Amino acid sequence: MNKNKIKVHVVEDSLVVQKLLVNILESDPDIKVVGVSESAEHALESISNLKPDLITVDIQLPKMNGLALTQEIMSRDPIPIVVVSGTSEKKDVAKAFDLIEAGALAAIEKPVGFGHSDYQRLAQHFISTVKTMSEVKLVKRRTPLTYKKIKENQNTASTQIKSQFEIVVIGASTGGPSVIQTILKDLPGNYPLPIVIAQHIAPGFLSGLVQWLIRTTGKSVEIAQDNEKLKPGTIYLCPEGRQTGFAPRQTFKILQIDHPSNLAPSVSYLFQSACDTFGKKAVAVLLTGMGQDGANEMRLIKEAGGTTIAQDAESCVVHGMPGEAIKIGAVDKDAILPACKIGSKLKELAQFQMVQ
User: Fold this and answer.
1) Superfamily per CATH, domain 6-134
2) Which residues pair with 246 in a beta bridge?
3) Strands 195-199 and 235-237
4) Where are the domains of the chain?
5) Which end of the chain is more exposed for a tag (fewer CB within 10 A), N or C?
């Protein structure tokens, strides 16, 4: 075997899907499937000997499910995990983010059989995701999930809140959902600013991310809609396959156009539009992710007098995007923060003034 090949272990209880995934993976000369497991228990027994570079995990498994398996792997000896799930069941799509919170790096749609019109697209996305995620060597240990659905006190009738800022825009990619969840949990129910998030995500998983964030943070989370007026305290996720910008009078302008980055949604497009529309009244945040999407446009926001924040290297799964912003001077040193402190910084910037 070529020592440079990516060693993958497939965990999937369906024999038909097992064969499909193995065939797709081994169609690439850089990948070698070193093991296949029908159950989480078998996978745990096998991976210590096989020492794979990456594991693909289905959500629904007999006895121990994909979430429990992910938690166990992360508590033992962390290995990059990619969740491979069907997107037809909304509950399963939302559950995929429980696995990401537990330490999985990405969730992708389960490929369809050969001959299907989507076969080539999904197969190539599967291969590219496995290759990319296998390069993430530092996968941090995570503690088991202990959250319960959070109920916020939304009564703000006797409170007046003023801020010099009008919007928060956030960009994230690999590892982003868990950090976004951490930030939103730290914000109060009466947070005054709209927050717009461009999260790179596999097609079909956006609605699941929305439901997961609502369930685990108790916040108001929506997908941005064209011509919709931004509401204070609402968290918006940019829609898939489109670019999200802003029009006058604080409304969304959603366009289905290409961007030089080939990303949709593009953090760069979102940040550029925020800079053009809000200028010094914008707060821009770059979180964990590969590449440099949003870095240059974050610098423009800083130059316009806005405030910029970047996640630090230690708390990132991948420090590509925030690291590039730091390198080009798009963020001040005192605004390079661990994930656990970004929410507090956003509260501080909102300049709460409580008036009875």
Assistant:
1) Response regulator (3.40.50.2300)
2) 252
3) parallel
4) 6-134, 167-349
5) C
Q: Which residue do the tokens 């929305």 mark? A: 210
* Whether 173 is catalytic: yes
**Domains 6-134 and 167-349 fall in the same CATH topology:** yes
* Euclidean distance between CA atoms 180 and 183, whole angstroms: 5
Q: Whose CA is closest to 216, among 186, 246, 175? A: 186
Q: What is the pLDDT of residues 131-182, one digit of tens each?
A: 999 988 754 444 444 444 444 444 444 454 567 899 999 999 999 999 999 9
The structure tokens 């503690």 sit at 143
Torsion of CA 273, 274, 277, 283, to 10 degrees: -170
**Which pTM was predicted?**
0.89
- Write down the residue that tokens 């997908």 correspond to: 223
Single out the catalytic residue among 37, 46, 134, 173.
173
Reply yes or no on whether 293 is catalytic: yes
200 is catalytic: yes
Nearest one of 14, 22, 13, 80 to 41, comparing CA atoms: 13
Distance CA 247, CA 295 (A): 22
CATH no. for 167-349: 3.40.50.180
pLDDT tens, 89-122?
677 788 999 999 999 999 999 998 888 888 999 9
Contacts of 316 (CB under 8 A, 6+ apart): 175, 287, 288, 322, 323, 339
Q: Is 58 within 8 Å of 66 (Cβ atoms)?
A: yes
Catalytic residue among 200, 268, 273, 319: 200
Tokens read off for 180: 């976004």
